[in-house]
Amino acid sequence: MLAVASRVLLTALLTFVLVWALVLGWWQANEFAPTTSDLLLCLGALPLLLVASFWLLRGFIEHLKNPASPAAAPPGNPDAGAESSATCRSDAVDRLAELRLLGVSVVASAGNSAEELLAAVVAGDRPKLDPTLRSDEGFPIFTARVSDLTPEVLADIEAESGTAGGIHSASPEQLRALALVDKVLPSALAQASEFLQQWTMPATLELLWLIPESVAAAGPERLAAWLNKRHLRAFPHEHELHLKPVADESETLRALDELILRVGRDDTPPTLHLVLGATSHIGEATTESWNAEKRLFSANNQPGQIPGEAAACLLLASPRTPVAANCEVATTLSRVNAARRDKPADARGRVSGHPLATLIDDLLAHRKLVASDVRSLLADSDHRDTRIGELHAALDDRFEAIDPIEDCHPVGTVCGTVSPIASLIVLACAHSKAQSADGPVVYVSNQDPIARAAMLITPFFPPPASESAPS
After folding, report:
1. How far from chain centre, in Å, is Cα 440?
2. Is the CB of residue 263 less than 8 Å from the CB of residue 273?
3. What pLDDT shows up at residue 456?
4. Most exposed residue of 67, 292, 355, 384, measured as fewest CB within 10 angstroms of its CB?
């Protein structure tokens, strides 16, 4: 106590001496004749205010350095501390839940594989002028159209969807989305069948179809009937189909995160998980709507969006399953780390990369990784300066090993706006990139004005054959 009082008195004395010396020196140099109020204010109140401010600031800093200790368990509940500890451990386990990504199937305007999409990004490819769609002014608009969705293909989809699933009067965007399902699902089901055959016990394929609201308008029951007749009827293994409408990218990522958490907690019999998503914004209805909302990219609206279309399948399994433990082409998918910006990215002013950087730092910290471990960064960022600028600002000096051209891939620049399933497209590319880069890859989502997310994709190295678990 005496030592504390001595420090306070010494600080006050030094402050008074310093203030008096400065004030009296200034008055003398300027031949100033102070009044009584000047003397009281400058020689009395000012040094006292400085001393009080110093000790208040010091106490506040000490408080920040020493957070309050956890509350003790109530006397009547001696197990409360143990329960709290168990809850913390459970939360930590949930935070580290993960799935093995065994295979992907993807199609977009820039290619029919993840490797082709990445090559298009590196080459600087961009969406082209559409052959049929026009703006309100009559000029061709830029789109990221999948070229081989011919009128014959769409007519076949329309004919079968009308008879099989009762999907009558489907819009061009809905038909194109179903045609994209036709392009990615067969190869994904073939992959799933190969893995299911490796199990000696009965196994199930759980197919989760994430349906954009524009497609879901056709009716989930009708869509399920169409998919069952078109693709699942001949599938030789037990399977379950779940349809989930999603409105935006954050809902897609939330559904994926819920799947990772559920499988991470679950020890039920072997199950493969197939996540499917397909969307198309190529059609007159979308063009007119985006024009009216000032969302459509044009020479006079550079911050606008470019309509795109794409589809992807992700084949996933619990790390505990034998096929996941022995798959040589698998990668590991972390949970989603999500947040929201305080200010929309489209608002005026500089776009800060801090929200994205914080998400990435937190993601790496939970996995006990540092920035130098990351080999590449992939994003759903499109051509807009706000999104590309935010992405590069998040890189900053944090990722010195990442080349902004060779290792930073804004996939949205080649496939346009494919919300709400852009995350599936980029994760398919990240799966390929993690394998070729032989190291961790970070995926970030920043196409939405406010919602932000990050995930970690790392290559998985199965144990030697002698150490592998039997399948």
Report:
1. 15
2. yes
3. 97
4. 67
Q: Quote the pLDDT of residue 405.
A: 79
- pLDDT(148) > 70: yes
pLDDT value at 469 more than 50: no
Tell me, what amino acid is at 345? A
**In this structure, what are the phi and psi dihedrals at residue 305, rounded to the nearest 5 degrees?**
-105, 155
- Dist CA 171 CA 215 (whole Å): 9
CA 56, 62, 67: angle at the middle one, nearest 5? 125
CA distance 336 to 363: 9
| Residue 5 binned pLDDT confidence (cut-offs 50, 70, 90) | low
8 Å CB contact between 377 and 415: no
Rounded CA gap, 252 and 420, in Å?
7
Alpha-carbon gap, residue 205 to 316, rounded angstroms: 10
Give the number of other Cβ atoms within 10 Å of residue 293's Cβ: 10
Distance of CA 428 to the CA centre of its chain: 13
User: How do 140-143 and 239-246 pair as beta strands?
Assistant: unpaired
The pair phi, psi for residue 272, each rounded to 5°, is -95, 145
**Shortest CA distance to 258 belongs to which of 250, 270, 267, 269?**
250
Measured distance CA(73)–CA(163) in Å, rounded: 65
Tokens of 345: 């990215």
281 strand-pairing partners: none
Angle 80-95/249-265 helices, nearest 10 degrees?
120
| DSSP designation for 44 | I
* Overall average pLDDT of the 140-154 stretch: 92
Distance CA(411)–CA(452), nearest Å, equals 16
* Model confidence pLDDT, tens digit, residues 441-457: 999 999 999 999 999 99
- DSSP code per residue over 126-176: --EEEEEEE-TTSPEEEEB--TT--HHHHHHHHHHIIIII---S--HHHHH
Structural domains of the chain, with CATH: 99-459 (3.40.47.10)
**Residue 205 predicted with pLDDT over 90:** yes
Q: What's the predicted TM-score (pTM) here? A: 0.79
Average pLDDT over residues 373-382: 93
Contact between residue 458 and residue 332 where contact means Cβ atoms under 8 Å apart: yes
How distant, in Å, are the alpha carbons of 29, 42, 47, 245 from that of 32? 8, 13, 20, 78
**Measured distance CA(338)–CA(443) in Å, rounded:** 12
Q: Rounded to an integer, what distance in angstroms lies between the CA atom of residue 378 and that of residue 447?
A: 12
- Measure the CA–CA gap between 308 and 323, rounded to whole angstroms: 35
* Element (DSSP H or E) covering residue 196: helix 172-196
